[in-house]
Amino acid sequence: EYSRWTSGTLPFNFYNSYAGTQTIYTAQMLGFEGGKNTVTGLAWEYRAEHDINDFNLKVYLNTTEKNVYDANAVALIQNNNKLVFDGTVNMKEGEHWLIVDFPEKAFEVMKGENLVVTVAMEESANNGTFPVQTYVFNSADAALAGSDGLYHSVHYNGNVPFEFGISGARAYKEIPVIHVASLSDETGIDQAVGTTAGNLGMAFCGDALRLSGKAETLSVYDLSGSLVSRIALNGKSSVNLPLAPGVYVVKATASD
Description:
The protein is an all-beta fold. It has one helix and 20 strands. The chain has one helix spanning 27-30, and strands spanning 6-7, 18-25, 36-48, 52-64, 82-91, 94-101, 107-110, 114-122, 132-137, 153-158, 170-172, 175-176, 178-184, 188-192, 201-205, 208-212, 217-222, 227-232, 238-240, 248-253. The longest helix has 4 residues, at 27-30.
């Protein structure tokens, strides 16, 4: 289970008008089981002080043999980044998920490959503050043993639009928590969920959700990222979810 530490910088930074974050997620972090995995969407967990509407967001995906960045020679991975999302998005006051879907621009990741996620953003107003906190892990601030000491992300923010060859980017140890929607050639619909308690499996049977693995709570979100319900499992391996017709994201939080 990742730490509940947050960052006002990675991957979303509203202090200046422009920002960009690139993070390497290793194959071990992703935990894909299929030989070929087709990524169709991403989601980030955040907490916002107020609504932020209609800011421009671009998301690029890539693969790499690199595991980390060199803090002494900071450089973004510049070649072969595929633009999978380019549009305007909103963040709501409170704790939500930012969900970005791109089924028509799906990206293939082979088992064993590292995934590179680049987020480039532009907001019309320069906040001069950090109104959004995004959940991260590998933070030395969260606990003494919370970081491996390596640099997994590169970040830029300023008054010049982000581009891959931009100067002034810095390396960070923190890794934004990310949820990956994917299709696997072996397991069908899949979600990469890695925790210290092992993998969590979920399956619906009518209104009942059955779980394998250790889970402590369930959180249900609609596609706008708003929290619909949070349920304490108290050791149960099945729970009823009588939801209105629609599409939802269900998050299982592992117990220790």
